[in-house]
Design brief:
Elements lengths: L4 H8 L5 H17 L4 H8 L3 H10 L5 H12 L5 H12 L4 H19 L2 H12 L4 E4 L5 H14 L3 E4 L4 H8 L7 E6 L5 H12 L3 E6 L12 E4 L12 H17 L1 H17 L11
Parallel strand pairs: 1-2, 1-3, 3-4, 4-5
Helix pairs in contact: 3-4, 8-12, 9-12, 10-11
């Protein structure tokens, strides 16, 4: 269902029962908290029965409460301020073991990413990078480490890699102004989506460059401006979003590219190993270590 949940609530408000109006009021005023409540908890918070909550979801056109909750979560994830994200995270964590909760959440994201990422799109991304004249990697703000990580390894394989991590729109365009047909652009964007990344991707695509987006939805601002989209889950609502799944997709890209550039990489690393040894770049393992 594409329509915003709150817009649905407003459009159907006239036909709500007394209990449903209480739910509607709470959703309107506290959607950031309601989106992560179970049906039972929402019912208790509002002061209605759980069955009333379920009927409310169906009244909006959903097949049940889980569907409405998912739609609410998708809606709010890009609306929440940093303060709201911390409040929601604290509320969700409660007395749970934080380490176990976060590790389990990350494992769930990896599993879901493995189920949803399109293998054809992945191969198309690999082919586009392999055949590119120049490669631009765009990742600003919290996803800048992803861009730097991918760029670090691609610099071993290709001669013309440009890493763009400056979040300012003006600075970004100064670095991607030369993008053209025959180039490949890899861009990262996750909630809260950076406007400069979407604008940069849109510009690069208009020049004829092939744009590869690594994001959480084809309908995200970046996803709508890409030739190929690699979906990776990153929907933990807290001050820090999980980048485990996107990083795993990057690892897969690097491995796939390295298998195609094996001969060139062997020559590069043979030369580097000699230099590293000569200039003591790495600590040497002592006897018995």
């Amino acid at each position: 269902m594409k329509q915003d949940v709150l817009a649905l609530v407003e459009s159907k408000a006239q036909g709500f029962s007394k209990g449903q109006k209480l739910i509607a009021q709470y959703l309107t005023e506290s959607y950031d908290k309601a989106a992560f409540m179970t049906a039972n908890r929402l019912a208790k918070t509002v002061g209605v029965s759980e069955s009333t909550v379920v009927r409310f979801a169906m009244e909006l056109g959903y097949d049940g409460y889980p569907s409405m909750q998912k739609a609410m979560q998708e809606m709010v994830v890009n609306r929440l301020t940093s303060v709201q994200r911390m409040e929601v995270a604290t509320d969700r964590i409660g007395n749970q073991d934080i380490l176990s909760m976060v590790l389990q959440s990350d494992m769930d994201k990896l599993r879901k990413t493995g189920e949803t990422v399109d293998r054809g799109e992945f191969q198309a991304a690999v082919d586009a990078i392999l055949g590119a004249r120049r490669i631009y990697i765009i990742g600003v703000r919290s996803v800048a480490p992803l861009a730097n990580f991918l760029g670090y390894y691609l610099n071993y394989m290709f001669d013309n890699v440009q890493i763009v991590t400056d979040g300012g729109t003006s600075a970004m365009f100064e670095k991607i102004v030369g993008a053209q047909d025959g180039d490949a652009v890899v861009a990262f964007s996750f909630p809260r989506y950076s406007t400069s990344t979407a604008k940069g991707a849109q510009y690069c695509r208009s020049t004829g460059a092939t744009v590869i987006g690594i994001t959480d939805s084809r309908l995200s601002p970046l996803g709508q401006n890409c030739d190929h989209v690699l979906l990776a889950k990153s929907d933990m609502v807290s001050l820090v979003d999980s980048l485990v799944a996107p990083l795993s997709v990057i690892n897969a890209l690097i491995v796939a590219l390295s298998t195609k550039r094996q001969q060139e990489l062997s020559q590069t690393f043979n030369q580097l190993e000699r230099l590293w040894e000569e200039y003591n770049v790495y600590e040497k393992r002592g006897d018995g270590q």
